[in-house]
Amino acid sequence: MYKKVRGFRDIFGDEIYYWNFIEKIIYDLSRRYGYSEYKIPVLEKAEVFNRGIGSTTDIVEKEMFIFKDKNDDFLALRPEGTAGMVRGFVENKLYAISGVKKYFYYGPMFRRERPQKGRYRQFYQFGVEAFGSASPVLDSEVIKLLTDFFKECKIEDKLKLEINSIGCPECRPLYKDKLTEYFETSKDELCEDCRRRLNTNPMRILDCKIESCKAIAEKAPVMINYLCRECAQHFESVKTNLSNMNVSFEVNPHMVRGLDYYVRTAFEMVTDEFEANSTVGAGGRYDGLVKQLGGPDQPGIGFAVGIDRLVGLMESKDVIPQYHLDIFFVLPDGLLDEGVKIINNIREKGYSVDMDFDLGSVKSQMKKANRFKAKFALIFGQNELDKKSVTIKDMDKGNQELVPFSRLMEKLSIKLDK
Ligand SMILES: [Zn+2]
Ligand SMILES: [Zn+2]
């Protein structure tokens, strides 16, 4: 017998209805905000991620599924969506279209992380990317889309929106100097990685998960106190727009992005449901990324949401209605021809119908109706055929009634179209 690869999993049964529920929201909400789907390849040249995510990040250094292809190319399974999206944006010259270009993606990503509960090496992300505008109105629109998404998933009350501004190439160098100065004073208490970061990228120390580093980072100077005038105005405008759209948020001055092409607005949806302050969705402005991947200097902003964790959160809160089959059709062997016709008619009207292909006793068929969580059983026996009727049994309440063929659809519509 074969077993699945470590860190991978099958998704099916009751859990899949959560996925289908979320997928419907992804497609519907993206359309409402003017985003069209972009299907990114699962496999890219590894350089795309080295350039797009940064060769010194944990993702690229430690977590990529990477291999040498037969023609000696290094290929990698995508660990996230943005790098491939931007590669496609540049390669397909989409930057040449005037105005804002809005895309969303949804699908599996791959990271060779240490397997642990709720973390998988194949995990799913929904993300959006908008290119071609530096307007703060776009920032707030992208954030609103993210909060709407969680609202429709019915778990908004478990989440908190945090925002920050992380400055720009104008104002960040001064801040970095202040930060380096600060960390130099307690250099000996930093972890080995962070001591290295002190020389390469001190802002990444603010992101370190090690407690002793966290304690030092807590009191470090924050970027929002060093913003240039343009960045400060941009941030004020984002906050005003969010308030105008009734989005509640908190400014978290400690939120950072480790890479230089991230500018200004950064945002995260955090929850305390798994562990304190864990992120279920994050995004930000990346005005330098298109250029980094060989395109013109065109601004961009986006976010990504981890769907596996979201499903876990929704399941624990039991937020969506259980899946039910509309109708289970119960009939004896002799009436199969007639029965199949009726089943076909009902399906063509848009209702879900199933039957027992073994055609066991009425009792055993009713048992299956229960197992399929049918809302109604339609019982079609000789008695019903003689009266050109069908018996409709409410599986929940237990009551039943005889309905003539001519009124069947009307009756189903009353019972099922709520
Ligand atoms: Zn600035
Ligand atoms: Zn550290």
Explain what this protein looks like in three dimensions.
The structure is a single chain. Helix 12 links the parallel strand 12 (325-330) and strand 13 (353-355). The chain is α+β, with helices and mostly antiparallel strands. The chain has helices spanning 14-32, 46-54, 58-63, 82-91, 136-152, 172-184, 192-200, 211-218, 229-244, 289-292, 307-317, 336-348, 362-371, 382-386, 408-416, and strands at 36-37, 43-45, 66-68, 74-77, 101-110, 122-131, 159-165, 250-251, 263-271, 278-285, 300-306, 325-330, 353-355, 374-379, 389-394, 400-404. The two termini are 46 Å apart. Bound molecules: zinc ion (2 copies). One zinc ion binds at residues 167-168, 170-171, 227-228, 230-231.
What count of helical segments does DSSP give? 15
CATH class of the largest domain: Alpha Beta
On the 0 to 100 scale, the average pLDDT is 93
Per DSSP, what share of the residues sits in E-state strands of 2 or more residues? 15-25%
> So, CATH architecture of the largest domain?
2-Layer Sandwich
* Distinct ligands: zinc ion
- Computed Rg: 27 Å
Distance between the termini: 46 Å
Number of domains: 2
CATH superfamily of the largest domain: Bira Bifunctional Protein, Domain 2
Instruction: Decide which structural class fits the backbone.
Output: alpha+beta
Helical content (DSSP H or I, runs of 4+): 25-40%
- In CATH, the topology of the largest domain is named BirA Bifunctional Protein, domain 2
Largest sheet: 8 strands, mixed
Instruction: Note the overall shape.
Output: elongated
- Return residue spans where pLDDT drops below 50 for at least 5 consecutive residues: none
Strand order of the largest sheet: 1-5-6-11-10-9-7-8
> How many individual β-strands?
16
